[in-house]
């Protein structure tokens, strides 16, 4: 099968999650393309010829990045006919009440493309990478520096996507 992973990332953490998922899905014998949707506009051609889609975004101030939201909504009608999985990277540790994605906003996207699920992964924060404004926001919400990405959880999720595609092939 041909699978597209579209991803929006500001500082690379979510892009690396997408690359990891791509590796797992490729190892299962599928053809996978990775599309960076952080910037720019991606017309209907961008989704031509794919059997299934994974769309991911980093979370900033409770929201998906604009590029990932736009990609999802621009192609919503076409994506409704295919298996779609959504994923986010955000939370920086277990006990910080300020992080996460606004459920209502991500639910809108799940409904728009009739996604199978939305999966939230922990993210990575490195203050030395941030703009002054981002650093200020990170301080205000008391976000912790560190790489909290759980590669085992990411691999297991990618395996579950592969298993679902095998069990229930599109078309
Ligand atoms: C300014 C700022 C705001 C953030 N807001 C949120 C948030 O609302 N919810 C969340 O879960 N993570 C939040 N994060 C954490 C990032 O989403 C997380 O570190 C993510 O893995 C970064 O992905 P990227 O490197 O692909 O951009 C924020 C980080 C920064 C710097």
Keywords:
single chain; alpha/beta; Rossmann fold; six-stranded mixed beta sheet; two-stranded antiparallel sheet; 6 helices; globular; binds flavin mononucleotide
List the helices and strands and how they pair.
Blueprint (H helix, E strand, L loop, with lengths): L1 E7 L4 H15 L3 E6 L15 E9 L2 E2 L1 H9 L1 H4 L4 E6 L13 H11 L3 E5 L2 E2 L6 H9 L5 E2 L3 H17 L4
Parallel strand pairs: 1-2, 1-3, 3-5, 5-6
Antiparallel strand pairs: 3-4, 7-8
The structure holds flavin mononucleotide.
Flavin mononucleotide binds next to helix 1, strand 3, strand 7 and helix 5.
Describe what this molecule looks like in 3D.
The protein has one domain: Flavodoxin domain (Rossmann fold). The longest helix has 17 residues, at 151-167. Helix 1 (13-27) crosses helix 6. It is of the alpha/beta class and 171 residues long. The mean pLDDT is 93. It has helices at 13-27, 66-74, 76-79, 103-113, 132-140, 151-167, and strands spanning 2-8, 31-36, 52-60, 63-64, 84-89, 117-121, 124-125, 146-147. The chain contains six helices and eight strands, in the order E-H-E-E-E-H-H-E-H-E-E-H-E-H. The strands form two sheets. Strands 1, 2, 3, 4, 5 and 6 form a six-stranded mixed sheet that branches. A two-stranded antiparallel sheet has the order 7-8. A hairpin with a 2-residue loop joins strand 3 and strand 4. The site of flavin mononucleotide (FMN) has 26 residues, from helix 1, strand 3, strand 7 and helix 5.
């Amino acid at each position: 099968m041909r699978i597209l992973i579209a991803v929006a990332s500001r500082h690379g953490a979510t892009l690396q999650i997408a690359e990891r998922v791509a590796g797992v899905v490729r190892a299962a014998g599928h053809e996978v393309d990775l599309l960076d949707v952080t910037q720019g506009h991606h017309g209907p051609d961008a989704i031509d010829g794919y059997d299934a889609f994974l769309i991911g975004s980093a979370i900033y101030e409770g929201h998906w990045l604009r590029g990932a939201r736009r990609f999802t909504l621009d192609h919503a009608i076409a994506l409704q006919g295919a298996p779609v999985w959504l994923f986010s990277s955000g939370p920086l540790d277990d006990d910080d009440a300020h992080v996460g994605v606004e459920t209502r906003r991500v639910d809108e996207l799940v409904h728009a493309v009739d996604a199978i699920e939305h999966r939230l992964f922990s993210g990575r924060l490195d203050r030395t990478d941030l703009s002054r404004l981002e650093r200020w926001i990170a301080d205000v919400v008391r976000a912790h520096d560190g790489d909290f990405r759980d590669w085992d959880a990411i691999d297991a999720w990618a395996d579950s996507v592969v298993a679902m595609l095998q069990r229930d092939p599109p078309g």
